[in-house]
Amino acid sequence: MALNKYMHPRNIYRTPPDFAKLSKDFAEFAAISQLDVTGKVTIDFKDPKSLRILTKCLLKSDFNLNVEIPEDRLVPTLPLRLNYILWIEDLLKAIDKDNNVRGLDIGTGACAIYPLLAAAKNKWQMVGTEADEESLSKAQNNVQINNLQELIHVKKIETTSIFNELFGKESEQKFHFSMCNPPFYSNIQELCESRSTARPPPKNGFTGSPHELITEGGELEFCRKMIKESKEHKHKIIIFTTMVGHKFNLEELLEDLKAEGLKHTNSEFCQGRVTRWGLAWTYQDYEIYKLVPPREKPRKKNVSTTYQLPELTEQTNNFETVHNKIKSILKDLQITHKVLNKRGNSLSIDIVATTNTWSNQRRKRRLMKRQESEQKKIKLDAAKEISVVNNNLDEKSEIPIASVSGDSDTATNTKSNQPEVDSIGEFERLQENQELVHAFIKIFMKQAQVILETEFLSGSSGKEGLHQIVQYIKNNWK
Known about the structure:
Elements lengths: L18 H7 L1 H6 L1 E2 L5 E2 L5 H16 L14 H17 L7 E5 L6 H10 L2 E6 L2 H13 L6 E5 L7 H4 L7 E6 L7 H5 L17 H4 L4 H13 L6 E8 L2 H14 L2 E9 L2 E9 L22 E4 L10 H14 L3 E8 L2 E8 L7 H34 L6 H16 L20 E10 L2 E10 L3 H14 L3
Parallel strand pairs: 3-4, 3-6, 4-5, 6-7
Antiparallel strand pairs: 1-2, 7-9, 8-9, 10-14, 11-12, 12-13, 13-14
């Protein structure tokens, strides 16, 4: 289901863009658009070129911005970027700041999309930092062609530090907020394996360079580094913020901020079929944690459920055994799973099930025994027929060998081709490219007890499907 209705209430893209109007106003958009069977104007969202042209035309139409988007760089999705900007506006209200705002965009990218939107929409003064030379040049060019040099400055960062080089020892510049859309992945392999093969393919085409998508340690470690460095510059930036792409990482970062005793808040950015999260914290005396971004139609939150698994024997009641046991059960269920984090006596896993392998286990076993019995009977009957043939041959029967063999094969094939009233296959309802259950599970040991915590994310079997998987795990734990 599309998430447009859960966008920020001030997001103009809650109402989808008028593609028919865009095709009339922009010749390049008309060139990539087409009429579907209902007469509606649409584009190929899996084509990166179409995405670039769409974004370029929307920026011009809605914000009067002329933006060049390089072919080998990330195409920014405007609804998401605008959600982030609007959330920043809400945060600034919490500190009573609505004019002469100064913001910092970490890793601004070739489009410098956040500074451009912030300057064009709100007249905020923005500084963007960028480490990649080519992206830096493209970003500076986009600022110049829109005549926003007085509001936007893009600075080259030479080191791996996030804030240190920007401020330096003698720098007096201060910001009301910082924002960042960090790379998600730690290496090429993680990028390629980030989406389970069991999940349906994404609706939109893939864009972005390795520089924009990969960083050492991935998104989680980058954000942790940001939190660590923020301590040194807590008087230079009032509110630190970042976007988070994986919900599991958000939960880990929230725990980090709680451990540091920092005032913090977070929000959900919904748009199209994608959800991202915003995370903010401050060292100063502002109650941003009381801020709840307004939403006309609150989205029902997923709530985690906790179960206690049966106690193991004293010899096997250790976390390594627990780890191996849960992986073995998931493998038996043919559930695709990926370990997100293993730390101490805690293991977090992302699971995707596309086939119901956990229901009607007793009936399946009965059917398997029935099939085994039928197979044995077929083999026994065949053996008897062969014995009769051999006896007849011994008695020099006039029955031709070929005729006997043919009759035997015919009898066997006729029997094996009869339709089975009950079959295990009827329970294996493989739903191609469709998730039955997508969830997070966390398993950990608390004293001698093994605790299983689950959170349903999506899937056609709903929370009941996840509950059935948990019941299977409990039944087979020993």
